[in-house]
Amino acid sequence: MSSTQIEKIIFATTNQGKMNEIRMIMKDCPIPIVSLKEAGISADIVEDGTTFEENAIIKAKAIMELTGCLTLADDSGLEVDYINKEPGVYSARYMGEDTPYSVKNQSIIDRLHDAVGKERSARFVCSIAACFPDGRVLTTYGTIEGEIGYEEKGENGFGYDPILYVPEYGKTTGEMEPEFKNEISHRGIAIRRMWEKLQEELPHGGI
Q: What are the boundaries of each domain within the chain?
């Protein structure tokens, strides 16, 4: 597969927040990276995997087969140890996909009412999958460790960002500037690892 054969990379998401992060992290990629919406794709994909990696592969493979394009997909979420690593792979669907994250976040905070210190440990997890038209599949993984805060803090990011407090930096991921967050985040780590793999897999040192 030569670079001239790859006109675009589809990232299988409709989440604009994710697309903003992805484009910032892969800013050196010379090929356009487009979302499902930008590619004019509407697909109802059943994410019935039991792990983040399985779901990422399911999404990437479905869109690759539909379009014939190199497709990336991520599955990511929040694991809270005190509540058996919930919401986990159900993070986007927790309490219903249309439920505002302010409500989801408060629910998690309420469920940890009696948890203190290390009992509040949690992490963001991200798995990225790349599916090539020739059948190759690549995956990468990234995490960022922290703990659940006692209230929402920060207007940056999206989703559960305002409640994952990272003691090392003294702030939630929702309080971090986007450029800094992308350097240390679960998605930033996983995407950079994938970008490295893509450059190794494709000819002539990359795309």
A: 3-201
